[in-house]
Predict the 3D structure of the following.
Amino acid sequence: MPHYSPKYVVNTGPNLLYSNASTANLRIKSNKNLLRDVNYSDWENEMTNALYAKNKIGFFDGTQPMLKEDSIELTNWKRCNAMVRGWLVSSTEKEIKGSVKYATTARDMWLDLKERFGKENAPWVYELRRAVTSIQKNNLTVSSYYTKLRSVWDEIQSISQIPACSCTGCTCRINKEIAKLRDKERLYDYLVGLDEEFNAVKTQILSSSPLPTLTAGYHLVSQDEQQRQIRVALHDNRNKSIKSEDKWCTHCKKTGHMVDGCFELIGYLEWWNTKNTNMKNQTGRQKTQAKAATVTEDKVTQLITKEDYENLMRMLKSAKVNEENPKANMSDKSCWNSPYNL
């Protein structure tokens, strides 16, 4: 017979109930998951899933009762029972821990908590049902709105469970009919909280015969939301395009900009085509200077008469010609015969 040290005795045999692999700590994600007065259903669901994963659910549901005193597995059973009790205590609030920490078995602890907190809490059920009627889509997406409602529905169902038919050989299918009725009520709750912009799809759903399921109604509203988002995006892009085309430059007769931003007048920016930058900047400066000269000329003509202005211009031209040909001003012919003439 092989010898096993006490450290590894829990791994022997086909029964993995006492395996080391299933004894890792059960971690509570946050304090809000601890058992309180009003969240027993959620807490029970989380604990059940965790205990199934660790192969320890039998210590809670009674399928793994305490072994007899002469059982060779009694020590292992007590060790696992103590470990599960520790998980249970650590998953409750401080005020609750003191009332269950002296329970002998994990099963006794479970039954005590279920007796105190597992019964239907009328005030809490009332608050949950009021929450269903007050939840509105508003700025939420259709998916977020549905998820928020679904969490409240599931909590109500866990607290106020509908009895199932237990008749032997029952053919009335009452359970299925009750499920359909509950689904219809939830569909009404879902449609009530939608915004007015979904009135068309709500009318479509309510006018259908037979009435679609909650899942089908959710998908119809979700598709309507997606189509609405696509239309809004296309409308915004079209408006941007129209606004750009509406800009008209009275100088270059082109679209896309106004006269105060015309590059031909103010000069081309550095990021413009570098190959033609110098030429285009020069064109812009010349046109700007010509425009300035025209404005100056108009202002001068407003100060003197047109006849005086023309005489002044002739005198300036004559003076310019004389400066360019100084010899033309010498009227004495003898000067040309002077020996000093070069």
About this structure: The chain is about 55% helix and 0% strand. The longest helix spans residues 214-246. Residues 99 and 112 are 9 Å apart (CA to CA). Confidence is low (pLDDT under 50) at residues 1-14, 327-342.
